[in-house]
UniProtKB/TrEMBL annotation:
Organism expressing this protein natively: Thiobacillus denitrificans
UniProt-listed Gene3D superfamilies: 3.40.50.2020
PANTHER family referenced in this protein's UniProt entry, alphabetically: HYPOXANTHINE PHOSPHORIBOSYLTRANSFERASE, HYPOXANTHINE-GUANINE PHOSPHORIBOSYLTRANSFERASE
GO cellular component: cytosol
Name of the protein this chain belongs to: Hypoxanthine phosphoribosyltransferase
Length: 181
């Protein structure tokens, strides 16, 4: 894709959450998470790559001791339809016996987060919590619900705030939905 095509993608998209809304949502999530996990010394795991913006903005708002690490799993690989869950970096052995909080940018069909939860339980996590910046309102019965949900987004392909559109635009401070084809 050329820079002009990438710009046209954004120009034709619809903003579904402004940058101010996203900041307010992350503030609320930080306080909800502190209410549940402040005394647990949790291991916080960001799901690369989509969670990078969410994690980077949430972590400084969590005012209690925690350990941070990441895992990398992908299922969309720059496309707008998901496929098989592919592990690129497994969680570390430090999950055993821990209260683990998984951070991700979006819960869509739920396959990714369910696979992460199962993996963490297999590795001996004492309790697995999850926080997602967005939950897609797609009418599906999902295999997992997140414990902490930022925003509901419409049943369209969304991007910005860590979420990509054809591999691009993760850097946007607001959330957009691709124009319907
Ligand atoms: O609920 P699901 O339908 O399973 O989709 C959610 C997952 O899809 C995205 O990851 P993606 O595979 O696009 O990789 P990325 O993090 O590199 O964008 C997103 O970051 C979630 O991890
Ligand atoms: N960027 C992005 N990634 C996703 N993964 C699952 N659904 C989506 C979506 O709508 N946008």
């Amino acid at each position: 894709m050329t820079p002009l095509q990438a710009q046209q993608l954004l120009d034709n998209a619809e903003c579904v959450a402004s940058a101010d809304t996203v900041q307010a949502v992350i503030n609320r999530l930080a306080s909800e998470i502190a209410g549940k996990l402040a005394a647990d010394l949790p291991l916080v795991l960001a799901v690369m790559g989509g969670a990078v913006v969410f994690a980077g903005q949430l972590l400084p708002r969590l005012n209690f001791p925690l350990e941070f690490d990441y895992l990398h799993v992908t299922r969309y690989r720059g496309k707008t339809q998901g496929g098989a869950v592919e592990w690129r970096v497994l969680p570390g052995q430090n999950v055993a016996g821990r209260s683990v909080l998984v951070l991700d940018d979006i819960l869509d069909e739920g396959e990714t987060l369910a696979a992460i939860r199962d993996k963490l339980h297999d590795m001996g996590a004492a309790r697995v919590w999850s926080a997602v910046l967005t939950n897609k309102d797609n009418g599906l019965t999902k295999p997992i619900q997140a414990d902490f949900v930022g925003l509901e987004v419409p049943n369209r392909y969304v991007f910005g705030c860590g979420m990509d559109a054809y591999g691009l635009w993760r850097n946007l401070p607001a959330i957009y939905a691709l124009k319907d084809k």
